[in-house]
Design brief:
heterodimer; A: alpha+beta; six-stranded mixed β-sheet; 32% strand; elongated; disordered C terminus; B: alpha/beta; two-stranded antiparallel ribbon; 8 helices; 31% helix; 31% strand
Chain lengths: 593, 286
């Protein structure tokens, strides 16, 4: 393959087969017309002198053959749609956007809709495209092929493609397609339903089919106190009402429960299941038009306990905090705690710290009576701060000391009552011996929020069974080795501070730090809008305002081979011996007549 | 296939009735007949005087001359002869390159035979084919079936012994298109002939060949081939060479005291006699 040279229609090279008969004709034509003469010696003597002048006469046959060969090569290059230069420069570029949502995996006549998309695109690009870009729609558009990949590579990518993304607006993919295609280039959008609105320059080909479907539309799992509870919602999209069998199995295939859920027409039913603490559970519906949304695997949603420790110089603060910790679930006292509740000023390392108390030393804003000041309101709070969720300050008496460092979260007058530092250290500036906060409902709610936030900061997934399209939230700490997320779409390295990403593919996702497996979550193939296949169908919308693609030989082919062909034919005509043309007009007769 | 197109018999008879061979002043040798021969003989026509030698016929003594000169002279008289007209027809393949040329050559040969016959002369036709023929009346009619297909040229036949004999008039009908020195050829043709008439029929395409493209030129007699593009320059050179060849032929003919005439074979026989042969060895009958 010559670098920079592409053939849009390699079949055109078959024209080179004409080279053999062309050369054969040349040698046959060399066999000139015989003429019998009475005196050959009169002609022989003239040969050398007469033909010494126009040297071209000697080369007339060869020039003609050369011109004809050039003409044949030019015709071949035109038929083969040869293009020179880097791909994309002067080449015919086709941009295809394919619907990557789950509904494209619906079966029509036993075949996924997506496979028909591959065939459609193959026919569309083989007309004359020399470079193809395929973009899959989704929360974040994804390139399946290209930019400007060869048609063969694009078709191969589509043949391997399995759409199972969430419902997402295709506009982002359309914008990306326009950027790649450039102005005036037609873009093909392949989907299973003609959208109500679409850009005019978009050519749309809908290849869906209206089908009835029964699917999971919601699923949840809780694992608490040694019990696993599963709740699933099953909806019917089309078809008549009736019972639908739901099978729950363990990961090894052992059937745990089989239930018939009655689902009204156009309605939904609920399946509940409870068992002793179990591993992954597989819940199935009978196969139908979209079998992918009828199988969900729910992984255990068990979080490790948050480990806490306390270190107080103030006995009152220690008791006040200890009461909250003792009442909290899913925490454990540990010598290597995740969170340490401590008095201000005490050195704490290797853990998240919550300072409860007042600074012993004077600080700015010092007030009378040893720097402490009591407040009954008004309390100024950051309403959107998760630390203060459901915390009521009415009726509180809050005695604070010098202002702690960090971002104020709760303040009263000039005193900062609660603050948070950038490293996550929370300061609760309170003298419990002179306050009633620890005896109010606000105290356990506040510390409950602190524990909840601390629990969230533990490395791992926030939720372990996530619906398609929902954020897959996770936490990784800055310390430790490099972190990565492995999923069905591959492995991605995680930077410290990464919190979540939009899951696009159902399957199991695992967090790793180095070789340590931190946590596992599962994205479920559940998207009610995608499971509803009733509105799917076939259709076509032509592009507007863009030059129509010509099918066949003249589809955006370069014209220079045609110019070369004409020039070669003209040169052949001029190179043909004038005498040969006269010979064609000469009367046939024996001898010289 | 050799061309044996039928001859125009009417044209032959026409020219035979209108024309006669213009016999030269020089004496003939041949059989005794109505034309005075070159050798001294017993006819009454006075030829010459010479001194009496012992043994001469005393009846030829010119007594009047003796009385006037006191010397004895005898009369020498020319012999009356009937001369042979030998028509040599070149039947080589070159004479048949065109149909017109082949027909015209045979018509010329036959016409000369007919003219000689009508003139009281004795015609003999020598066909110069690979197997030469010497035809006398009434076999002369075979000239109508002579095919110009011989592979041997006239010089080759002469070298191999073309059956030509002593004659009064020898008329050679040939295109003389052979690549050999012409002087020896004409010398041989003139040998034994009192008068030599060379008639060279050439067709139009031989005299004025047209330009053409790439042509494979084949010699009619040897089969040798060359490939040439007949452009203007090539054709012009051919015509120059043909003119030079004809000039050589004319010079060689004149050297042996013969007469050469080129006749266009593409014209009818009567036209040839009227416009080309009349006055070049042929006379109109009174």
């Amino acid at each position: 393959m010559i670098p920079g040279l592409t053939l849009g229609a390699p079949a055109g090279l078959l024209a080179l087969l004409g080279l053999a008969p062309l050369v054969a004709l040349y040698f046959l034509r060399r066999k000139s017309t015989p003429r019998v003469v009475p005196a050959l010696f009169l002609w022989r003597a003239t040969a050398d002198t007469a033909e010494a002048g126009p040297k071209l006469q000697r080369l007339q046959r060869e020039w003609s053959l050369l011109c004809e060969i050039v003409a044949l090569l030019a015709a071949t290059l035109f038929l083969a749609d040869v293009r020179c230069g880097p791909s994309g420069a002067g080449a015919s570029h086709a941009v295809v956007v394919v619907d990557g949502s789950l509904s494209m995996s619906a079966r029509v006549d036993g075949r996924p809709v997506a496979s028909r998309a591959a065939e459609l695109v193959r026919r569309w690009v083989e007309v004359g495209a020399t470079a193809v870009t395929v973009i899959e729609t989704g929360p974040k558009p994804r390139l399946l092929a290209g930019p400007a990949a060869t048609p063969g590579a694009a078709v191969e990518a589509l043949e391997k493609w399995t759409p199972h993304g969430p419902a997402a607006s295709p506009e982002a993919a359309w914008r990306l397609a326009r950027e790649i295609a450039g102005a005036g280039t037609r873009i093909l959008y392949v989907t299973d339903a003609v959208p109500a609105e679409a850009p005019k320059e978009l050519e749309i080909e809908a290849i869906g089919h209206s089908e009835t479907n029964v699917a999971f539309v919601d699923a949840s799992r809780t694992d608490e106190r040694g019990k696993t509870r599963v709740e699933l919602r099953v909806a019917r999209f089309g078809g008549s009402a009736g019972p639908v069998p739901v099978t729950i199995s363990s990961a090894d295939g052992t059937e745990l429960q089989r239930t018939d859920v009655t689902i009204p027409e156009g309605g939904a039913g609920v399946v509940r299941f409870e068992t002793a603490a179990a591993g992954p559970l597989v819940v199935r519906l009978p196969d139908d038009a979209l079998p992918d949304d009828g199988v969900v695997t729910l992984v255990p949603d068990v979080r490790r306990p948050l480990t806490v420790g306390t270190r107080f110089a103030d006995e009152n603060a220690s008791r006040a905090v200890g009461r909250v910790l003792d009442a909290s679930e899913s925490i454990e006292r540990s010598d290597t705690p995740d969170v340490v509740f401590a008095s201000p000023g005490l050195p704490i390392e290797g853990a998240r710290v919550v300072r409860v108390g007042v600074e012993a030393s004077a600080a700015t804003g010092a007030v009378a009576d040893g720097g402490r000041r009591s407040y009954v309101g008004p309390f100024f709070t950051r309403k959107d701060d998760p630390l203060l969720e459901d915390v009521e300050f009415a009726g509180l008496v809050w005695t604070a000391g010098p202002n702690p460092p960090g971002r104020p979260i709760v303040s009263a007058d000039a005193s900062v009552l609660v603050s948070e530092e950038p490293d996550g250290t929370v300061h609760v500036n309170i003298d419990v011996s002179r306050s009633n906060v620890q005896r109010s409902n606000a105290w356990p709610v506040l510390f409950g929020n602190i524990l909840s936030l601390a629990r969230r900061s533990l490395p791992g997934f926030a939720h372990r069974n996530v619906l398609l399209g929902e954020q897959l939230a996770f936490t990784i700490t800055a310390s430790g080795g490099p972190a990565r997320l492995e999923g069905p779409d591959g492995t991605r390295p995680l930077t410290p501070g990464a919190r979540a990403f939009a899951s696009a593919i159902p399957g199991e996702y695992t967090l790793f730090r180095g070789e340590e497996r931190l946590d596992t979550a599962r994205v479920l193939p559940i998207d009610a809008s995608e499971s509803d296949l009733r509105a799917r169908g076939a259709g076509h919308k032509s592009a507007e305002g863009v030059a129509k693609r010509e099918a066949g030989l003249l589809a955006e082919r370069p014209t220079w081979p045609l110019v070369l062909l004409v020039l070669a034919l003209l040169a052949d005509y001029l190179a043909a011996a004038p005498g040969r043309r006269r010979a064609l007009a000469a009367p046939p007769a024996r001898g010289l007549a | 296939m050799p061309d044996v197109s039928p001859l125009d018999v009417a044209a032959v008879e026409l020219v035979a009735a209108r024309y006669r061979l213009g016999l030269p002043r020089s004496a003939y040798s041949g059989r005794v007949g109505g034309v005075l021969g070159r050798q001294a003989g017993g006819s009454m026509e006075l030829q010459d005087f010479r001194a009496y030698q012992p043994g001469d016929d005393v009846r030829q003594i010119d007594w009047n001359a003796a009385a006037r000169t006191d010397q004895v002279f005898i009369r020498v008289r020319r012999e009356e002869v009937s001369p042979l007209v030998e028509v040599v027809l070149d039947a080589s393949a070159s004479m048949g390159v065109t149909s017109a040329k082949a027909v015209r050559a045979r018509e010329l040969a036959w016409a000369f035979c007919r003219i000689a016959r009508a003139q009281g002369l004795e015609p003999v036709l020598v066909v110069g084919s690979d197997e030469p023929l010497r035809l006398r009346p009434p076999e002369l009619v075979h000239v109508t079936s002579v095919a110009s297909e011989g592979r041997r040229t006239l010089p080759e036949l002469l070298a191999r012994g073309l059956p030509v004999r002593s004659c009064g008039v020898r008329i050679v009908v040939s295109d003389f298109l052979f690549d050999v020195p012409l002087d020896p050829v004409l010398a041989k043709l003139s040998t034994g002939a009192t008068t030599l008439l060379v008639v060279q029929p050439l067709d139009a395409v031989e005299r004025e060949p047209s330009e053409a493209g790439l042509v494979e030129i084949v010699d009619s007699e040897t089969g040798e081939k060359i490939e040439r593009t007949l452009g203007a320059a090539v054709v012009a050179e051919y015509r120059r060479r043909l003119g030079a060849h004809q000039s050589s032929l004319e010079a060689a003919t004149r050297k042996v005291r013969g007469a050469w005439t080129m006749v266009p074979a593409d014209q009818p026989l009567p036209v040839l006699f009227r416009e080309h042969l009349l006055g070049a060895g042929v006379e109109a009958r009174p």
